[in-house]
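2024-03-11 09:14:02 DEBUG pipeline.ingest accepted 1 chain
2024-03-11 09:14:02 DEBUG pipeline.ingest length=290
2024-03-11 09:14:03 DEBUG pipeline.predict start
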Amino acid sequence: MAEREPNAPQCAPDESRGGTTEFMDLEVPDYAYMFGFLQADGHLSKGTGQKGRMTVELSARDVGILREFQRLTPYNSTISGRTRTTNFALSHESSIWTLCALEARTKLNELGLPYGRKSENIAPPRVPFSQLDYLRGVIDADGSVGYTSKGFPFVSLTTASTYIADYLCTYAKDVTGAERALKRNARDSIYNVMYTMEAGQSLASHLYYPGCLSLERKRAAADSLAGWVRPAGMRSAYTKRRWSERDDRILLRHASPTAAAEALGRTKQSCSLRLWRLRSGQVRMPGDGE
């Protein structure tokens, strides 16, 4: 790909709008995706003076997404390759995208891509941004999409950032209705957030919509989840039933977990625990009226 002139205009092609777009306008889906990917898998480093670079190294099979990033970036950048030995292979081929322009690095840093080690500090942007595209970028870089060893659909994310893990949980709850409690692994202090079965299927379909910018292999994996059907006889996914003020009033009126369980269609254990929480002040008593 031909290099651009150093004084190229700070905008990138936007054929869908028939004009140009400001570099890293996060309300543009492709830039939101790109920024999420860079936050998770990019590295911003400083050199002496105004020198420095932003790099992303991926397996050579994913070089296509680096070419897309180069296309979206109106500054000189390069894509190179290298072969090295890793813990998983004697000969691993990778592709590296390198961007040195100070103006570009400054923009990325201002949006929330820190210099140096960043895994625990990254957070969703504070400016308006395309949320689902940003989250797909994060998952493409640091997550997984596909089938579990038992053949169940899943979408997962591994991250050291509490902000990113919490953002995924909040966003996915709105999309799928599934709740997840945040807890770091005791071994490596990392969050592993996973959505399986219908929740994973729904989240994958939502994030990887037709024509979106993404890693080809993960988009193909997400597309494959659409055909999954829960096996006959498998228990349906459990959905937590919340207590309403009306439920609380009925529970208090019966005063007996056994009687309340029959009236509310709940278990005796659930009613007993809720009654204890109400009487001990752990949850607020319901207001008056029906």
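2024-03-11 09:14:41 DEBUG pipeline.report The first helix runs from residue 29 to 41.
2024-03-11 09:14:41 DEBUG pipeline.predict end
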